[in-house]
Amino acid sequence: MTILVTGGAGYIGSHTCVELLNEGYEVVVADNYYNSVPAVLDRVEKITGKTLKRYNCDIRDRNGLKKIFSENTIDAVIHFAGLKAVGESTRLPLMYYENNISGSVVLFEEMAQAGCKKIVFSSSATVYGNNPIPYKEDMVTGDVSSPYGRTKHFIEQILGDVYKSDNEWSISLLRYFNPIGAHESGLIGEDPNGIPNNLMPYISRVAIGKLPQLTVFGGDYDTKDGTCIRDYIHVVDLAKAHLCAVAKILGTTGIEAYNIGNGKGYSVLDIITAFEKASGKKLNYIIGDRREGDLPAFYADASKANTQLDWHAQYDIDKMCEDTWNFQTKNPDGIK
Ligand code: NAD
Ligand code: UFG
Predict the structure, then answer these.
(1) Which residues have CB under 6 Å of ligand 1?
(2) Helix (H, G, I), strand (E, B) or coil at 279
């Protein structure tokens, strides 16, 4: 079985490529390296002892996709390629709509042309907006606070329409909660360009001395310690969820959404404490103002993925912090 992984050189994509190769799949990666480097794929090959096929291809490039589908028999697509910085998306909404939505439409058209109608799509918990917690898949979605989040909601809707128009499609929408951690080899992990927006890479850069101080965004929320609650999930657990989803779509048709989270909420201060324990370092932080757009608390009801995909998260926040720190210390200047 051959899987096309768009955005396969990125953070979640690279960990998923490792799991796919370990499981015996053939892997073809399409990435334009906008937010990654080809060396990541060398490391995927080093970890697994297997090779994958790679194309420097933008998913908006129809001819590039045609070449991939004509040179390979693709059984299913895992679609990670996209821009993901929430704050940037409010400044540059058209760039997000063009890359994420136009790119996805071109990809879906070329899949249909090639007769490949099986896809796992990287969605996000952000589609739930202000729903009560825990989030469940049958809640109304779309009350989203950023253009980034809207691209996820729109692409889910587009795939819904695609399925309605052609019931041969088999579509899995994976709504990720907060992925952190790294492969335990320390060879691949999250390696954002510039100053990180997300909590975990920020913490690890403070711990290693690359950034002076973490600002905790808000200490006055109505939560157990005043800081925001999120559902953190180890990136390897998340990667494995894609294998479960691929197994499912290969044998069925239809469209289903699944929450991929631990089902547990941790505060920012919980994560700081766990990171200090894992790294043996005291973290320099202050409590600052709230960040605009942040919800006080959300976490998943992941029971649908547990029962219907037979997927279960294995790793706790201690392991997430240990693996993040291991990656950070082995790659103080990132992956070159
Ligand atoms: P990432 O930026 O590390 O990986 C995305 C990859 O896609 C990068 O390698 C980038 O170069 C590539 N890419 C971007 N636009 C492309 C294009 N037009 N053509 C080809 N390649 C392109 O991000 P990630 O954290 O691995 O996220 C993967 C997916 O999961 C994204 O769609 C993201 O929105 C979604 N997601 C991520 C999170 C998270 O917190 N990391 C949460 C929810 C959903
Ligand atoms: N935080 C800080 N300081 C920082 C960075 C983050 O205190 O420097 C806090 C945030 O306020 C939040 C928590 O750490 O309470 C997690 O923040 P992240 O930025 O790591 O993650 P978010 O929950 O904001 O974002 C995630 C995904 C997005 C998705 C969003 C909404 O990264 O893709 O959830 O579902 F859109």
Answers:
(1) 6-7, 9-13, 31-36, 58-60, 80-84, 99, 103, 122, 124, 176, 178-179
(2) helix
